[in-house]
Write a structure and sequence with these properties.
By secondary structure, the chain is α/β, with parallel strands linked by helices. Helices cover 44% and strands 16% of the residues. Strands 1, 2, 3, 4, 5, 6, 7 and 8 form an 8-stranded mixed β-sheet that branches. Helix 7 packs across helix 10, helix 8 crosses helix 9 and helix 11 runs parallel beside helix 12. Bound molecules: S-adenosylmethionine.
Amino acid sequence: MDLGHIPVMLEEVLNVLRPEKDQVIVDGTFGGGSYTRAILNEAMCKVVAIDRDPTAYARAQDLQKEMPDRVIPIHGAFSEMDTLIANENIGNVDAVVLDIGVSSYQIDQAERGFSFMKEGPLDMRMDTSQGQTAADIVNNYEETDLANLIWKYGQEKLSRKIAKAVVKARAEKPFETTKELAECVADIIPFAGKHKTHPATKTFQALRIAVNDELGELEKGLEAAKIILKNNGKLVVVTFHSLEDSIVKDFLRQNSKEGQQQAVSRYMPEQPKSTKAIDFKLVDRKAIAVSAKEAKENPRARSAKLRWAVRTIVQEASA
Ligand SMILES: C[S@@+](CC[C@H](N)C(=O)[O-])C[C@H]1O[C@@H](n2cnc3c(N)ncnc32)[C@H](O)[C@@H]1O
């Protein structure tokens, strides 16, 4: 059954985005298209709908059929959005919105291999047309590299133990499915009660991040957004875990006056003046958290955070 994707923090996104007539807005993570549809409903604007997943791209193409002059579907990675929109002869844009991570469409389809709850090939690629799969990593990485990956991207304390068990198991038979890997991890980490997360949760998160270079994509995506945003254009990013949120937070801190002021230590107030360009203005210095109501209604949204800023194409030195 296709359950679709329940959009996360949509109300908050629209609240900061405030789309206007004739604007061009980039939805860099089209997914199920809920953000794009909601943006198009708000004002007579256009949306450039980017997704690296071919099935999401197909959904964007379907939406374009409904609204030919208002939707521009693009298959590609948002890290390359500057090149992608230049190829379409689209000039600078009024806003970029990113809703980082995987969609329910991807998680819920067993054949995509994202879920340890469903038997499927150990794939996890968002862009199924290219790149290495999770099975390639699990079956070929050195034990230490595998342990480091599970530690770094999964923040899994038992990463060494898991890597050791994986390497031992694959010597008998290489991993092919999600269930095989989930069971291997569950064999060495006990399930801690019915309300606790599955023992393989962090390992799966780590592999997904590595397969799709999710953190590298985010870093490059923020830089690409900086290039294509007009003066006063808005950058709006929704993230789901601390690794992602830190990247957005650091980027905005380094690129805004407010962030640089915040970063000045009160113990060392006499720091040299920064000559860094001020590329964004932070309106809300803190991340906006998901509402209690939404967290209750949609458990997948529990850890979501929204950060946003306004592009300022003015050079000034911060004090
Ligand atoms: C959380 S979903 C977005 C859901 C969407 N906001 C909605 O309301 O339906 C994330 C989507 O972004 C896509 N995605 C993730 N990283 C990407 C990247 N680096 N470039 C392009 N698309 C990406 C995924 O394929 C997925 O479809």
